[in-house]
Amino acid sequence: MTFTGKTAFVTGAGGGMGLQIACDLMALGANVAMVDVKPQPDCIPSGTGNFIYLKCDLSDDTAVRTAVAQAVEAFGGIDLLANVAGVLWFERDKSALDIDLDIWDTVFRINLKSMVHTSRHIAPHMKVAGGGAMVHFSTIQCRRGDTAPQDAYQASKAGVIALSKSLAIQLGGDKIRSNVILPGPAQSPMQARWEDNADAVKGLSQIIPLGRVGQVSDMSNACLFLLSDKASFITGTELVVDGGLLARP
Ligand SMILES: NC(=O)c1ccc[n+]([C@@H]2O[C@H](COP(=O)([O-])OP(=O)(O)OC[C@H]3O[C@@H](n4cnc5c(N)ncnc54)[C@H](O)[C@@H]3O)[C@@H](O)[C@H]2O)c1
Questions:
Q1: What mean pLDDT value characterizes the chain?
Q2: Ligand 1 site residues, Cβ closer than 6 angstroms
Q3: Distance between CA atoms of residues 36 and 11, nearest Å
Q4: Are 123 and 69 in contact (CB under 8 A)?
Q5: What ligand 1 atom has the least distance to the C-alpha of 60?
Q6: How many domains does the chain have?
Q7: How far is Cα 190 from Cα 20, in angstroms, rounded to an integer?
Q8: In-domain check, residue 38
Q9: What's the CA-to-centroid distance between 220 and ligand 1, angstroms?
Q10: What is the pLDDT of residue 46?
């Protein structure tokens, strides 16, 4: 795969999977607009491609519009979108029957509406470029229930799939593809609760057919494939990256 001459807009790039995706794209020649609400991390390696880091709250449509304009100004256009940013609030996200409704709305604004913001501001630039590819991050948790419900997370991530399929149909004529990755449990800052709990990771690994939890590189590899020309006939679908967990009874 090569991304030389391409520009990517990667959200969640101050964190686990987004940061890895941004670095891998740069290593393969892309210029990358790295976008996150967090400050720029120290550990961005130099690659063949260049980067700009844009601190932006993606749930704010005006801020996203500005970030997209900054990316276009820096690199001349946008060909690729990785919608990676998301939140899973273990303490506050719970059953729909008793969750604080402000939490519900905030989770939806970050996990789903921010992807509407990026998609609507970036699609016109992809059209100008003659095509493009979008990858949106959901979770396997929206395909199964959980005895400890996180209903805002699950429902917002289910919406990501519906949004992606609709975009795939609407934008296919413009040679713009839209696909979703459904990660299984993966080691990243989102799973900071595992840091002091080796037993939890071990227990989880035992029920995953491939015998381990995911790494950010697993998700980045899948994302880069879907963004690349190797996936040029793939749109409107989901790629499960979970070591076989969903396949289990
Ligand atoms: N780690 C897992 O086990 C796992 C499993 C399934 C799905 N996912 C999904 O994969 C994606 C990446 O997860 P991760 O593990 O890298 O998480 P992470 O917490 O390491 O990174 C997410 C990033 O999103 C950013 N972000 C949050 N709200 C934002 C906002 N309003 N504006 C801009 N940036 C914002 C955070 O600052 C963070 O850097 C997420 O969408 C997550 O839901 C993760």
A1: 96
A2: 12, 14-18, 36-38, 57-59, 84-88, 110, 137, 139, 183, 185-186, 188-191
A3: 6
A4: no
A5: 31
A6: 1
A7: 14
A8: yes
A9: 13
A10: 75
